[in-house]
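> example.struct
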């Protein structure tokens, strides 16, 4: 009598023990990845700290030495040569000052609002100055209230916004005005970037934060990156159009103490 083998059919039921081992293994992998991420972040912060120290001290001392040498040799040089050298050294000093503002001299994420705004203003000055754009920065220049958020990420986000504003003036024939307003109230920081550029069309409005979408001939990741950073720090970014004479207004909102808040439901 021929015996017929039954075809093996895997059980559709989950094996709790197997699932538990799998979860443990995945948890261990996540833990290892977090350790690697923390290590990379720490390494980056230390690198930026050393780079800032190099610019602040070593290069700063070299520039001061150049000033001293120029002072000694000034009488032996032709006036135009002396002026050219002094202008070059001044430019180097200005670049160092701007660099110091852009890179926090600390590996911590705590900084005052005026530090962030001064850095952004320095970057905007170079971009807007050659294009006849009037820019205005409004914030409390005396306050030392700390912001416990990633400095570099916020600076890059805001620079993306001001760069987009500057690009928007290429297709605008009116007054070129860019304003940045920043206030802190009850540990909530609100920063508005406003411009009188060409604005955002109705059909483009719903896509401004989409990956690789651009209306300024850019790469299309600036606003996408801005929204991503906001998600990571528990903040929010929105935009409005045609208010108080400004064609575009982007508003960045976040907690100064690093807390996560759903600003969309406030």
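> example.seq
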């Amino acid at each position: 009598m021929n015996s017929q083998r039954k075809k093996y059919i895997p059980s559709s039921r989950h094996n709790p023990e197997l699932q538990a081992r799998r979860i443990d293994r995945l948890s261990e992998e996540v833990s290892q990845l977090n350790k690697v991420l923390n290590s990379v972040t720490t390494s980056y912060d230390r690198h930026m700290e050393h780079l800032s120290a190099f610019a602040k001290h070593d290069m700063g001392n070299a520039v001061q030495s150049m000033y001293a040498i120029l002072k000694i040799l000034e009488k032996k040089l032709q006036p135009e040569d002396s002026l050219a050298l002094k202008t070059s050294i001044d430019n180097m000093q200005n670049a160092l000052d701007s660099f110091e503002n852009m890179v926090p001299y600390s590996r911590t994420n705590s900084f005052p609002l005026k530090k962030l705004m001064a850095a952004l203003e320095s970057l905007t000055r170079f971009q807007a100055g050659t294009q006849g754009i009037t820019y205005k920065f409004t914030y409390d220049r005396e306050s030392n209230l700390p912001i416990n958020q990633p400095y570099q990420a916020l600076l890059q986000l805001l620079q993306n916004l001001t760069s987009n504003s500057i690009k928007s003036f290429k297709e605008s024939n009116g007054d070129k005005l860019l304003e940045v307003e920043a206030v802190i109230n009850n540990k909530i920081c609100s920063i508005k970037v406003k411009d009188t550029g060409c604005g955002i069309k109705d059909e483009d409005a719903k896509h401004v934060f989409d990956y690789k979408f651009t209306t300024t001939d850019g790469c299309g990741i600036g606003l996408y990156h801005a929204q991503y950073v906001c998600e990571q720090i528990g903040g929010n970014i929105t935009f409005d159009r045609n208010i108080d004479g400004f064609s575009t207004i982007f508003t960045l909102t976040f907690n100064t103490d690093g807390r996560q808040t759903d600003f969309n439901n406030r």
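> remarks
DSSP finds six helices and seven strands in the chain.
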